[in-house]
Every structure is written in structure tokens, then in C-alpha cells.
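> call design_seq(struct)
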């Protein structure tokens, strides 16, 4: 009986120590698993070309990020660029349409991203009166 109790106690101590080690390796209150260090960065630049007749600005367009947990997921366009944090995986970028503007998106506006990677998505909105 003494051997069984000792074996149980050793097993219990091992379980507690293992659980504690796993918990500390997953992150603590100061470094949660969802921290920005576990995300890739997508920089979205919006350029608006108005020609002689257009009058919209980059901020008149709304950008949507389709991905796993994007931060932010939706925002107003910005010619200086907006940094978006993305969890590892596939993503795509879409932009609202405004009459008489044609949007062209660079190749990095869709694809896959790793957690330590930075990609740049350039969108050009060009006014074209038809």
C-alpha cells in the first residue's frame, strides 16, 4: 500500500510540474498567445489619381482585409500606408468602389503570410470619366 501511495504522489507531482511548464511556455499575462509578435504585417498604401476632373481622396475609399484575425479589419484608405497585423495564413484585400474610379491592386494584396513576414499592398484608384 505504501508503494502505491508513493507512486501516486510521484505521478501527481509530475503532472503539476508538467502542466506548469506547458503553461509558462504558452505565454503569460504579459505575453499572450495573440500578441502582435505572433503576427505578420501587411502595409496597405492607397494612392488616388484624380486627373483634371476627379476630386476624391484616398480616405474616401474603405479598405477591407479578409484573413484570420486582421487588426484592423476595416479602415479608411491612407496614402501614407496603414499597417495591418495578420495571423499566419491566407489573406486578401478589397476596396470600396466609387463611381468613375478604377482600382488596381498589386500582387501582395492577396496571398499568404508568415508570422514574421512583412508585405506591402499598393492600391491605385484612378479617375476615368466615361
Amino acid at each position: 500500500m505504501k508503494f502505491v501511495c508513493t507512486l501516486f504522489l510521484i505521478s501527481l507531482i509530475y503532472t503539476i510540474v508538467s502542466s506548469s511548464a506547458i503553461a509558462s511556455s504558452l505565454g503569460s499575462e504579459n505575453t499572450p498567445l495573440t500578441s502582435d509578435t505572433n503576427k505578420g504585417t501587411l502595409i496597405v498604401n492607397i494612392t488616388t489619381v484624380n486627373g483634371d476632373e476627379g476630386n476624391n481622396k484616398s480616405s474616401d475609399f474603405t479598405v477591407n482585409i479578409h484573413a484570420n484575425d486582421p487588426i484592423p479589419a476595416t479602415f479608411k484608405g491612407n496614402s501614407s500606408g496603414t499597417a495591418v497585423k495578420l495571423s499566419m495564413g491566407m489573406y486578401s484585400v478589397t476596396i470600396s468602389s466609387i463611381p468613375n474610379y478604377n482600382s488596381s491592386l498589386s500582387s501582395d494584396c492577396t496571398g499568404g503570410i508568415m508570422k514574421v513576414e512583412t508585405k506591402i499592398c499598393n492600391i491605385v484608384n484612378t479617375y476615368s470619366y466615361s
